[in-house]
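Section handout 9: paired folding examples.
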Amino acid sequence: DGTWSSPNSYTANLAVDPDNGTGTTSSQASHGYRGFLVFDDDMDTYWASANNTNGAALPWDMEFDFDSDTIISKYALAAFGNGVGLDDWTFQGYNGSSWITLDSQVGQVARMINGVYVDYPIYNTSSYGKYRLNVTGSDTNTYCYVRQIAMYGPA
């Protein structure tokens, strides 16, 4: 009938299991803030982008490459610090030739609470092999800090 409703339940976080694929980022501030840390399901770790003033210009990407095509119907983000870092982004799936935008967010920094997941249910019925968070703005536009990214499929 053309309507969509969010699933009542979701799978476990698919992006934390190394048997499901590999997480990467487009930059990192230093060895201690490596990209895979946003996918390790540990709130004591976090990723920090390279400094924008040192040539690591926006956008900053956090990507998970699944071993097989997967439907993601919700993602969640946990910030490092209250109201710090993430502000504007797109969540995208890769169809083999281009990135398809599944969700866009603007001005989200006020929702970010240190170490607490903020959920973003999305309408997506397509399987993609890769998903990414493409950060296009941060509150400082110098760095981006993220504790965790979680990705869930429909149960």
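Moving on to protein 2 of 2.
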Amino acid sequence: GMRYKVKNGIWPGLAPLGYLNEPKLRTIEVDPLKAKIVKHAFLLYAEGDKSFADISRFLHKNGVSMRDGRPVKPDYAKKILSHRFYVGIMKYDGEYYDGKHKQFISRDLFNKVQKQIQTPTPQDTTFVPSVESTPIISDDPIRISMDSTLLVWKA
């Protein structure tokens, strides 16, 4: 079932923002349009002068919103920017697995964003440091030591 899929590098649930569920192949594929939006959000935040609210507004301007059309909350933008799935790491039932899905966020960019998240911009008043934060990702999966919640995009 689900555990078998995830052990084989296939995400068993709904695809995160920037990806699509491919029902015929039962895989997750890159959504070309939304992947560009997500990547641009990562690039904007990595610049160092953008808040989660800025990223939320950027996402809204580019068609990513709540079901009722309102902009996503800044905390949701933070979850997107912290989502390990973008660098090929899946968390399922408390364990980490290497995903076989195509990645469109480099580990360097992801790590730069994680460092920036730990050093918030002055205008980002919503930032509250947490004990459990997203770790810097290395090519060595053994170095992953902290826990983080994965965000699953629900359209």
